[in-house]
Amino acid sequence: MKILVINGSPKGEYSNSLKLTKSFLAGMNEENVTTYHLAQLDVQSCRGCFSCWKNTPGKCVISDDTSIILSELIMADVVIWSFPLYYFSVPGILKNFIDRQLPLILPFMEEQSNGKGSGSHFSRYEHRKSRHVLISTCGFYSAADNYDAVISMFDHFCGNGNHTDIFCGQGELFGVPQLSKRTNEYLEIVNRAGAEFVNGAISDATQTDLQQLLYPKDIFEKMADASWGIAKEDGTKIDKSLSFTQQMAALYNKNSYDGKDRVLEICYTDTDKTYQIWLAGDGSRVITENFKEYTTRIETPFTVWQDISAGKITGGAALIQHKYRVSGDFDIMIKWDDFFGGGASGEVFDRKTNMRILLMPWIVIWVGIAINPVWGSAAGIIAAAVIPFCWLQYEATIFEYISVLAVSGISLVSLLGGDPRLLIALSYALFGSMWFITAFLKTPLTAYYSSSNYGGKHALDNPLFVQTNRILTACWGVLYLLTPIWTWFLLGTSISYLTGAFNSILPLLMGIFTVWFQKWYPAKVAGE
Ligand SMILES: Cc1cc2nc3c(=O)[nH]c(=O)nc-3n(C[C@H](O)[C@H](O)[C@H](O)COP(=O)(O)O)c2cc1C
Questions:
Q1: Which end of the chain lies in a sparser environment, N or C, as judged by fewer CB atoms within 10 Å?
Q2: Test site for ligand 1: of 138, 147, 179, 228, most ligand atoms within 8 A of the Cβ
Q3: How far apart are the C-alpha atoms of 528 and 521, rounded to whole Å?
Q4: Pocket lined around ligand 1, Cβ cut-off 6 Å
C-alpha cells in the first residue's frame, strides 16, 4: 500500500497535527510511506494562466517542487492531508498546493455526480482510487463546527464524504510535555483509528473516542489564556512566573476538592516573586497581593519548577534532591496529580488495590487454626477461594496470588493433621518474609497498596513515595518475622486460643504508626 502524507503545517516537523498523523501511521503499520513537508519545499501559488490546460497540457509553467508531489499523488493508495486549521480553513501553503493540482484535471465541464452542484472536471490521469484522510488540530477547545469550510472543500475535490476525518481541538496541548499523559491517551486512540482504517474503516466506538475533549472547556480556556504571558485586562506583558502560576492554577481539578479550602503559596527564590493559588470547591484563583495564611508553601527556583513542568525532572526526584522545599501541610504534594491533573475527560484511572484482600486469608488462618485447627483450616481454604472474586472489583497484586497459594497450602497441611503450632508460626514467618524481601525490591509491598490513594500507579515513579513505603514495608516485615517467636511460645500455653487476638494488637499499633509516618516522613524530607 502506497501512502502519501502531505504536511501542510508551516511548522513542518514541529506540527501538532503531524503528531496525530504519526500515531495514525504507526497504527496503520505500513512501510511504504512518503511524507512531504510543504513548509520545507518550494510550492509557489498558482498564477491562474491555464497554461497547464491549453499550452502545455498537464504541465505547469512553474518549475518548483510541486510536480514531484503531484506525481506521487496520482500513484498513492492513501493520501493523508495533515494540517492545522487556519481561519476556519487550511493554511496558505496547503491551499497553494491544492490549487496547483490543476494540471491533474481536464478543462472540460462535467456534471457533478455527487450532489455537490456547480459542475466538475474529470481527471487527466488514470488515478488509483485513493482513499483520503484529513488529520488536523485546531486551537479552540473543540473541533466541532470549526471545520465546515474544510469539509466542504474536500467534499468537492475528493467526492462528497469521500474522506476520513480526524479533527481535534486544543491542538497546542500536544506540544506541552507536562500534559503528555493526557495527550498520549488521545494519540493512542488515533493509533487505534489507524489500525482500524487500514483494515476497513474507523469503528463507531473509536470515532466517538476521537470526539472527546482533551480537557474540559473551562480548564482548557483558562490554561490557554494564561499561556500567552500577557494580562487579560490590558494586553501588557506579565511576569513569566506569574503566567506560569496562572497556568498551574488553571489545571486545578475541582473534583479533587475534599471540603477543605487550601492555599498553595509558591515562592520563586531566584526571581524573588511569591504568588498564592487558592484552591476552593468552585475552582482556583491566583492571589498576587494581600496574601492569605498558606496551607502549603513551596520554595523553589523558577527554573527548577519549569524543568519539572517540562518533564525534564519529576517533582518527586527534584524534592528528594532538595531542589525545592515544602513547608506546611504536605498532603497536596502527595496528591499533586489529583489536584493538578486538570480533570481531563476520558482519563483512565487505575483500578484500586485493596490491602484487606491481602490480609484477609492470613488473619483467617491465624485466628481460626489457633481456635480450632480443622474449622480454622477449612475457613482458610474458603478465604483463599474468595479472593479471585474480590479481583473482579479490585486490582490483583502478586502478593495476593502468593497468599492464595500459601494460605491454601498451609490450610491443607493443617487439615491433613499438620502441627497447628508449627504451621501458624511458619505462616507468620512466610508472611513476614514476603514483606521484608520486597523492601529491597524496586517497588516495596505497601507502595502497591497506598499508591491507590496517591494518584494511582504513577505514584510509583515518585522516589519519595517509594522511599517512605520502603521504610514502612521493612518495619512491617520485621514485625511479622519476629511474630513467630512469641507465637510459638504462646501456642504452647493454656491461652493459645488467644494468640490470634494478641497478635492483632501489635499490627494495630503499627497501623497507627504507618498512618503517622506516611505524612511525617515526606514532610520532613521536603522541609530539609
Ligand atoms: C494564522 C492562524 C490561524 C488560526 N486559525 C484558527 C481557527 O480558525 N480556528 C482554530 O480553532 N484555531 C486556529 N488556529 C490555531 C491552530 O489551528 C492550532 O494552533 C493548531 O494546533 C496548530 O497546528 P500545527 O502545530 O499542526 O500547525 C490558527 C492559528 C494560526 C497561526
A1: C
A2: 138
A3: 11
A4: 9, 11, 15-17, 84-88, 137-140, 146, 171-172
d(CA 225, CA 95): 29
Mutate to test the pocket of ligand 1, among 15, 19, 86, 142 (most ligand atoms within 8 A of CB): 86
State residue 485 phi and psi, 5-degree precision: -65, -55
State in Å: Cα 45 to ligand 1 middle. 21
Virtual CA dihedral for 43, 47, 48, 54, nearest 10 degrees? -90
Which atom of ligand 1 is nearest to 16's Cα? 25
Mean pLDDT of the chain: 91
Cell digits of residue 450: 497506598
Q: Provide CB contacts within 8 A for 71, sequence distance 6+.
A: none
Q: Residues 54-78: what's their mean pLDDT? A: 95
73-87, 142-156, 514-528, range with the lowest pLDDT: 514-528
- At residue 85, φ and ψ (nearest 5 deg) are -85, 125
Strand partners for 167: 136
Tell me, letter by letter, the H, E, C secondary structure of 374-396. HHHHHHHHHHHHHHHHHCCCCCC
Q: What is the pTM of this model?
A: 0.74
Residue 115: which of 151, 148, 161 has the closest Cα?
Answer: 161
| Residues sharing a CB contact under 8 Å with residue 94, sequence separation 6 or more, in sequence order | 6, 8, 38, 81, 83
CA 486/CA 488 separation, integer angstroms: 5
Asked if 473 and 435 touch (Cβ cutoff 8 Å), the reply is yes
Dihedrals phi, psi of 299, to nearest 5 degrees = -110, 120
493 CA to centre of ligand 1 in angstroms: 80
Give the pLDDT confidence of 190-212 residue by residue, as tens digits. 999 999 999 999 999 999 999 99
One-letter amino acid at 393 equals: Q
CA-angle at 245, arms to 244 and 246, nearest 5°: 90
Unique residue bearing C-alpha cell 482548557: 220
- Over residues 298-313, the pLDDT tens digits come to 999 999 998 888 778 8
> Cα of 243 to ligand 1 centre, how many Å?
21
Q: How far is the CA of 6 from the centre of ligand 1 (A)?
A: 17
CA–CA distance, 299 with 302 (Å, rounded to integer): 9
Q: Which of 87, 150, 213 to mutate to test the pocket of ligand 1 (most atoms within 8 A of CB)?
A: 87
Q: Give me ligand 1 centre to Cα 286, in Å.
A: 28
Ligand 1 midpoint to CA 348 (Å)? 28
Out of 7, 38, 85, give the residue to mutate to test ligand 1, the one with the largest number of ligand atoms within 8 Å of its CB: 85
Residue pLDDT, tens place only, 399-433? 999 999 999 999 999 999 999 999 999 999 999 99
For residue 79, count other CB atoms closer than 10 A to its CB: 20
C-alpha 92 to ligand 1 mean position (Å):
12
Q: How many CA atoms lie within 13 A of 35 on its CB side?
A: 15
Structural contact between residues 259 and 232, judged by C-beta atoms closer than 8 angstroms: no
